[in-house]
Design a protein that fits this description.
This protein has six helices and nine strands. A hairpin with a 2-residue loop joins strand 7 and strand 8. The model has no long low-confidence stretch (mean pLDDT 85).
Length: 226
Amino acid sequence: MSQNVVNRYLPFLDSSASRVLSALLLLHILIVYGFSRQEIVPPHRPLDEFPAALGNWIQSGESALDEATRQVLRADEVLSRTYRSTGASAALFFFVAYFKSQRTGVNPHSPKNCLPGAGWYPLASSIVSIDMPGRSEPARVNHYVIGKGDARNVVLYWYQSRDRVIASEYAAKLYLVTDAIRYNRTETALVRITVPVIGDDLDAATQMALDFARQAYPRLRLLLPS
């Protein structure tokens, strides 16, 4: 659009401040429209159908969240298991929280916030890329090293929805808005893998977490809506 047309027909856009305000107003209208319609809640398979065996990984335990934690988390469905691999020095913890809708303010709690609340403090953080089966390009996920006293854990986590794997909380919020507008859907899942660090072998713990992520992703994808 030329500046002459703007000046003649849209004089209120004749400044950068006005254009920014107009863009924000349009975004607000789109958000209200996207969140005001009756939402489509797509069907999904129960998380407890996630397999007990993934290659060399065998389920070694399952835990239920206490009621206080459930009230804070407010997830519609939760999977909380431990797995152990042949020859592995430690078991890993696999956690999935599924939210069928985020329209009422219910959404995943970022591990960046809940882990410090549980006494774990961050030691290092980065984004890592993983080649996962069924994906044309590597998935980017969060890689954290956390500590509590002498204990250290490696944590991988991501947000998964509509076949997406998202590391950034901000990107997840953006997709929430665009999916509400385009598809009238807001479901998502938080996926977290935690591996204890034995001794000082941080690389071994990271490789365990990466291997399990590669094994888990395609099976979890079958359970979540596409």
